[in-house]
Amino acid sequence: MYNVEADGLIKRYGANEALGGVSFRVGAGEIFGVIGPDGAGKTSMFRILTTLILPDGGSARVLGMDVVRNYRDIRTRIGYMPGRFSLYQDLSVEENIHFFATLFGTSFEENYGMVKDIYSHLEPFRKRKAGALSGGMKQKLALSCALIHKPEVLFLDEPTTGVDPVSRKEFWTMLGRLRDQGLSIIVSTPYMDEATLCDRIALIRKGRFLDTDTPSGIISKFTLPLFAVSGQHMPSLLRDIRRIPNVLSCFAFGDRHHVVLEDRGLSTEAYADALGTALYAMGHTDVVIERISPCVEDCYMYLDTLEERS
Q1: Residue 87 DSSP code
Q2: What's the confidence (pLDDT) of residue 310?
Q3: Residue 107 above 70 pLDDT?
Q4: For the whole model, what pTM was predicted?
Q5: What's the rounded Cα separation, in Å, for the pair 35 and 228?
Q6: At 153, is the pLDDT very low, low, confident or very high (cuts 50, 70, 90)?
Q7: What distance, in Å, lies between the first and last C-alpha atoms of the chain?
Q8: Taking Cα atoms as reference points, which of 148, 157, 128, 147 lies closest to residue 38?
Q9: What is the C-alpha to C-alpha distance for residues 132 and 118, in angstroms, rounded to an integer?
Q10: Is the pLDDT of residue 232 over 90?
Q11: Residue 52: left if φ>0, alpha if ψ -120 to 50, beta else—which one?
């Protein structure tokens, strides 16, 4: 049995369709990542799965229970960390944890083993009000409160947004330990680099999944020629690359542009020469062109381009 199952989930807000028929499965001891930008439908999906809103179509089950009919039972067996910090900011760290333990009919002492690795970071600040914590410490406190009743499934909606890189790394290390204890974790994030930290991922765009697979599985499906191009005039370079007929997609990636070309069975040198010649004719005489391997973000951007054109 899967711990989380969704079949054709649909959610609408007036004329806006937030979810357009999402389906997936999550097993025990698995981190399932939902990867996509703001407005893609991630939060609506999480709110349905955590029984906070009703779907307009499709069905979902958590621990074998229907999210509509069995919402009371589901709420006692899951942990949920929403995107916005939602704890009581005027209460101290330890007061928040004790309060949430009481809500679930347990105690901090009884379930300390579940949160001790996370709480060890918070203990020096246990008397500090939650509102006075740093972003990273707020996230650790929210995670502790979501775990204090020993849930079987953990839902994390963009838990590292706005958190510094060190705290993000620590947070994902903690998630890995929880996964190793058998906890099912569903996490959403707009950060493509976090996709590789998940066991499986779904790439979401405008309420629909573009692909669902392991990170390496999604990358292995990308077989088109991919190049990184840089030069002195990057904005005009981006516009001109997109005008070249055999360019399928091009987007800015840090200090370079990632360019996907039609597969014509050519060598790397031939592709680079053709691209360089086309750009030289447009007045770009200083470009650097390099063949590169794809990452999850390249896969997402290419699939997004295909979806936009369809």
Answers
A1: S
A2: 67
A3: yes
A4: 0.91
A5: 23
A6: very high
A7: 36
A8: 157
A9: 18
A10: no
A11: alpha
